[in-house]
Design goal:
- The protein is an alpha/beta fold.
- Helix content is about 35%, strand content about 20%.
- The strands form 3 sheets. Strands 1, 2, 7, 8, 9, 10, 11 and 17 form an 8-stranded mixed β-sheet that branches.
- A hairpin with a 4-residue loop joins strand 9 (about 235-240) and strand 10 (about 245-250).
- The chain is globular, with a radius of gyration of 23 Å.
- About 45% of the residues are buried.
- It is an enzyme of class 1 (oxidoreductase).
- One of its GO terms (molecular function) is monoamine oxidase activity.
Length: about 450
Amino acid sequence: MADIVDAIIVGAGLSGLQAALDLHESGRSIIVLEARDRVGGKTNSTEREDGKGSHVWGYCERFNLTPVKQNIKGLVASEDADGSCHMFPFGELPKFEKSDVDGIVKLRDMAEAASLNPETFQKPKRDELDSISLEQWCRDFGVGTKSLLTARVWCRGTLGQDPCEVSALAYLEICRGAMGLVNLRHDGKHGAQYLRVQEGTQSISIGISKLLPAGTIKLSTPVASITQQTPKLYTVTTSNGDTFKARKVIISIPGPTYKNIIFDPPLPQQKLLYTTAARYGTFVKHICLFKMPFWNRQGACGLAQSFRGPINHCRDTSVPDRGNYALTTFLCAGPGRKWLSLIKEERTEVILKQLGSLFGVGYETVKSEFIDSITAKWTEDRWAGWGCPFAATPPGVIGDGWKANQKLGGLYFVGTELTDEWRGYMEGALRSGKRGAALAMADLQTEDVRL
């Protein structure tokens, strides 16, 4: 029995590592199996070639990391569907016609109220909202084109999907977990975008991994199957034929990647429905590095949004103390897919031209300040499910109230898409990992008492 551990954790992203740490610190034996050759999941920090709060905040303090506040001092850039651009003060709305602004405010306030109302997520309202798309929900309020385009920016910026692809319930659940739509979109204090980590987000995963016993994490070890031998024993087999046995298994992988694993017995129909239906959009993070922050000379803070694309939104991700100046752009949905089809030189030219228009300086100025760019490889990552930031469901999947994170015997499901709080964010991943570990520990404790 010495080769049987208390729990196997599948996946060494933030949620899996948090679950592993909680179990280890409670005195339980664990093994972590990770398909990649590194820890961190979709957090993968890349160094520049030139060398240049919450559970998350707790780890920043524990590992002596350097938080960087999001720059919100200055103007925000806005691009209309016809390519016309203007800037407006942070905290205000774009300078559209009054009727358009009123429509955006109406839709924002309705989404905010719905996401904070508990009845939204209870039957019968729950079923009603899951039966329609987010786009239909917005249209039902009778708002105009600018409002619908704004909602598209929101949805693309959160999921890389258009509002017609996501159920209204799914999106409002995301808003609820962030304490409302406004907070989800906010870059100021307490908002979802408030802090960054100077050393890179992967540094938290690396730090947690070092708190685990040596040899606990098995890298480059994809899981091929999970078999329940008895009610209290599971065998996990890897793609290279190695087997591991445990009393419990915590699964910390994205929904779309469940199809990489054979479950015996098979997952129940509701779980299969979720893992089959939950899908990524197109969400590309493209970081542009510059010699100097040219946008600051225009009085801009680096935040921008576009109805046209391919950039859906961007923000200043500079670290001025290190002479590191950058704009991180996000290319989403259809415009993002079209951009991905271009060769590298064309991609760069398109981005620099749009940044020149957004911030009113022109292509030549942006090009003269440009150093290089870094593109996240999420769309090429099999173990992430070929996407990011997290999978969401279309209409008709989650309305019955069954939770995708519901445990099945000795199987526990964690991940940033499976949390009710801060879904899609690092904080959500950590909270989900803690929840899964707590469930597993409670069941292990019950079994120990029975023994």
